[in-house]
Amino acid sequence: MYDQPRANPSGTAMTFDRMLERVRYEGAYPTRERAAEAVHHVLAALGRQLTGDERADLAQCLPIEAALTLTARIPTTEHLTGWGFVKDLASRTGATPATARWDTGAVLTVVARLAGPDLLARVLRRLPGGYALLFGQAELRRPEPAAA
Q1: Mapped to the 3 state alphabet, what secondary structure does 63-112 carry?
Q2: 114 Cβ contact partners less than 8 Å away, ≥ 6 residues apart
Q3: If exposure means fewest CB atoms within 10 Å of the residue's CB, which of 9, 51, 124, 130 is most exposed?
């Protein structure tokens, strides 16, 4: 079954217009249309990487237009690192890796605020390494098992 966005019962839910303005500010985009393009590309790419309850819960935190973009595609079986995510986004959109990284940071820092710290921590645990920086967070190393 596909993840379907659920209505966000929070009275302080952000509208899609407000989300676009935040992304436009974060990314210093010249137009609202450019911010919308970045939102759709980045959320579609994130939706291909994220699975499970974290995907559904994140969709619930987003404005409906953004949630539909996040959940529109079936997740892939190829799990990309953070840098792999940026390179894949660049190749899919025809952008340079630097532009794709910029777009990713502008969108995901807003998504991180909407998700809140608890859900963001769950999302980051679900994804391979390298995503924390894309969400504007410190990348903490996971403890390695002790050798026997």
Answers
A1: CHHHHHHHHCCCCCCCCCCHHHHHHHHHHHHCCCHHHHHHHHHHHHHHHH
A2: 14, 19, 61, 62
A3: 9
The residues, any chain, with a CB within 8 Å of residue 70's CB and separated by 6 or more, are 5, 43, 44, 46, 47, 50, 55, 58, 59, 62
Asked if 23 and 107 touch (Cβ cutoff 8 Å), the reply is yes
Mean pLDDT, residues 2-21: 66
In this predicted model, what pLDDT tens digit does every residue of 14-52 receive, in sequence order? Answer: 999 999 999 999 999 999 999 999 999 999 999 999 999
Task: Please name the residues in contact with 32: beta carbons below 8 A apart, sequence gap of 6 or more.
Answer: 20, 21, 24
The first and second tokens of residue 93, run together, are 């959109």
Among 46, 87, 62, CA closest to 7: 62
Task: Determine how many CB atoms are found less than 10 A away from the CB of residue 52.
Answer: 12
Kindly report, residue by residue over 66-117, the tens digit of the pLDDT.
999 999 989 999 999 999 999 999 999 999 999 999 999 999 999 999 999 9
**pTM for the predicted model, two decimal places:** 0.86
What does the angle CA 102 – CA 37 – CA 60 come to, to the nearest 5 degrees? 90
